[in-house]
Amino acid sequence: VARWEHKTRALSQIFGSPRAACYCLGAVILVLNCVRSHCFTEAMKSQPKLEGWDYHWTYYSGLAISAVGTLFVISSFLALGFTGTFLGDYFGILMEEKVTSFPFSVLDNPMYWGSTAIYLGWSLMHASPAGLLLTAVVAISYTIAVLYEGPFTEEIYRRKQKGVKSK
């Protein structure tokens, strides 16, 4: 959807502005994330636990991993803002420069990997093999997304820098 918007600007035309379109897409993404999290939780609850993992140390390890993931997700959102988080660059809404401060100074794509860590931690906390499998699906999905988004983001900020230098 974001690539389509970037090529056609159709959503921006429908919603009257790039910001309104980006906010609507962001709202859809948030709703879908809630649905995904609910389905993830229901899948874990409906499947057997790994009895060998149903211990305090596994629970607290999962809690710690989820806490680190939450730190990365929240700090990413605070660094990027709503439009930076929800594909604003595809709508032509760019930051002054590419964000390189924490958590981006620690790892690339901290929101994706933080979200993955939350699911991993949640799976460990529930000693859930289904949760571990679904976490792998989330990680693979994010890896594919990064393959598309990473080069796009690099290119638009390279073009922006080139445009600023030529003025």
UniProtKB/TrEMBL annotation:
One of its GO terms (cellular component) is endoplasmic reticulum membrane. InterPro entries: PEMT/MFAP, Phopholipid_MeTrfase. It catalyses: 1,2-di-(9Z,12Z-octadecadienoyl)-sn-glycero-3-phospho-N-methylethanolamine + S-adenosyl-L-methionine = 1,2-di-(9Z,12Z-octadecadienoyl)-sn-glycero-3-phospho-N,N-dimethylethanolamine + S-adenosyl-L-homocysteine + H(+); 1,2-di-(9Z,12Z-octadecadienoyl)-sn-glycero-3-phospho-N,N-dimethylethanolamine + S-adenosyl-L-methionine = 1,2-di-(9Z,12Z-octadecadienoyl)-sn-glycero-3-phosphocholine + S-adenosyl-L-homocysteine + H(+); 1-hexadecanoyl-2-(4Z,7Z,10Z,13Z,16Z,19Z-docosahexaenoyl)-sn-glycero-3-phosphoethanolamine + S-adenosyl-L-methionine = 1-hexadecanoyl-2-(4Z,7Z,10Z,13Z,16Z,19Z-docosahexaenoyl)-sn-glycero-3-phospho-N-methylethanolamine + S-adenosyl-L-homocysteine + H(+); 1,2-di-(9Z-octadecenoyl)-sn-glycero-3-phosphoethanolamine + S-adenosyl-L-methionine = 1,2-di-(9Z-octadecenoyl)-sn-glycero-3-phospho-N-methylethanolamine + S-adenosyl-L-homocysteine + H(+). It is found in: Endoplasmic reticulum membrane. It is a multi-pass membrane protein. Keywords: Endoplasmic reticulum, Lipid biosynthesis, Lipid metabolism, Membrane, Methyltransferase, Mitochondrion, Phospholipid biosynthesis, Phospholipid metabolism, S-adenosyl-L-methionine, Transferase, Transmembrane, Transmembrane helix. The chain crosses the membrane at residues 20-38, 58-87, 128-148. Its EC number is 2.1.1.17, 2.1.1.71. GO terms for biological process: methylation; phosphatidylcholine biosynthetic process. One of its GO terms (molecular function) is phosphatidylethanolamine N-methyltransferase activity. Pathway: Phospholipid metabolism; phosphatidylcholine biosynthesis; Lipid metabolism. Pfam families: PEMT. This is Phosphatidylethanolamine N-methyltransferase.
